[in-house]
Specification:
Length: 335
């Protein structure tokens, strides 16, 4: 999918009146969910879009990187919304519905380790069912790092299984052969998958919003009615215990020495860190540095501080030793 411009008449604007439409963006760690959300926010035209960002770490880095100038449109929830099923999610959606200003559309970004099924069931199995319409579940895939091993993660498999639309993102980093092989993995899991190819989440919004793809009735008859029969209302998902990902957050009111931080990255950071993101303060710079590490790559991008400077960084991976990471990062701070 390479067509990047919006048609002049934008069907996204024709939003159904009954129930606020909801799109859920899911996808594995670092696949490009926040990047896609920013594309949506930049191209939404007059649509009033509220976003609900759920982060795995204790610090909300993603919400600080959203392009929206209107922070009122962002609701946050930390931890994993699919695990604490799910008063937190219901409350956050209520807060959006109760706003004076009418919201046309809700987009939810899940964490990279989220199983989307409990989230869907929260919408369809609670009072939210009458107030919202689940439009689609979009699964973002990092085409470069995706391989068969991803399915050792239950969450990654569930994300593909329940994705109504699958965006093979980061196609700029791979060969056509790699794209084909990822498509084949996906078709093995889901033979009728709808797949789009994207770079930096660029996709015409009419292809992904108001597309009415989530088969609500199927979920209700397969999961909700079945659960009622078994008097089992808890949609708790054991995926985190299975996947073993943990997140470690570090904050400091002092700047890093850039050279020490680089040494930390190249020599001391555990190999088992799969994803890291941060807003960094270096002693020799007046700018903030957005740090992104996803699989084998990392980047630092400088821009102005909108707030007083401080260091915030999150690491997500397996078997991480918090004390060791803290000691190493404290050693990078300027005395
Ligand atoms: N080369 C390339 N980089 C991309 C693309 N899309 C996103 N990225 C980069 O990948 C990194 C992770 O992107 P995010 O959008 O933060 O990923 P995410 O899925 O929100 O990450 P988590 O929420 O932490 O799981 C960032 O550095 C992005 O700039 C793409 O199509 N090509």
């Amino acid at each position: 999918m390479t067509q990047l411009t919006l048609p002049t008449t934008n069907p996204v604007m024709e939003i159904p009146k009954q129930g606020m439409p909801v799109t859920i963006i899911t996808g594995f760690l670092g696949s490009g969910k926040t990047t896609l959300l920013n594309q949506i926010l930049q191209n939404k035209q007059d649509l009033k879009v509220a976003v609900l960002v759920n982060e795995f770490g204790d610090i909300n880095i993603d919400s600080q990187l959203l392009v929206t100038v209107d922070q009122d449109m962002v609701e946050l929830s930390n931890g994993c919304i699919c695990c604490t099923i799910n008063d937190g999610l219901v409350d956050a959606v209520y807060r959006i519905l109760e706003r004076e200003e009418k919201i046309d559309y809700l987009v939810i970004e899940t964490t990279g380790v989220a199983d989307p099924l409990p989230i869907v069931l929260t919408f369809l199995g609670t009072e939210l069912k009458d107030l919202t319409t689940l439009d689609s579940i979009i699964t973002v895939v990092d085409t470069e790092t995706f391989n068969e091993d991803h399915f050792e993660s239950d969450a990654a498999l569930q994300q593909i299984t329940y994705g109504d639309m699958i965006l093979l993102n980061k196609t700029d980093l791979v060969t056509p052969e790699k794209i084909k092989s990822v498509e084949n993995f996906i078709y093995d899991v889901k033979s009728a998958a709808r797949i789009l190819h994207t770079q930096y989440g660029q996709v015409p919004l009419p292809l992904i919003l108001s597309v009415n793809l989530t088969p609500e009735n199927e979920y209700i008859s397969n999961h909700i009615e079945e659960n009622h029969e078994h008097h089992h209302h808890d949609h708790h998902s054991p995926h985190l215990e299975n996947d073993g990902f943990i997140s470690i957050s570090f904050q400091a009111d002092r700047p890093f020495n850039v050279h020490k931080f680089e040494t930390f990255l190249t020599e001391k950071m555990p190999q088992t860190v799969f994803r890291s993101k941060g807003i960094l303060w270096f002693s020799d710079s007046e700018l903030r540095h957005i740090f992104q590490l996803s699989g084998p790559r990392y980047s630092l991008h400088a821009d102005e501080w909108p707030t007083p400077p401080k260091n915030q960084i999150v690491f997500i991976g397996k078997n991480l030793e918090k004390e060791e990471i803290y000691t190493n990062l404290n050693n990078c701070l300027l005395c």
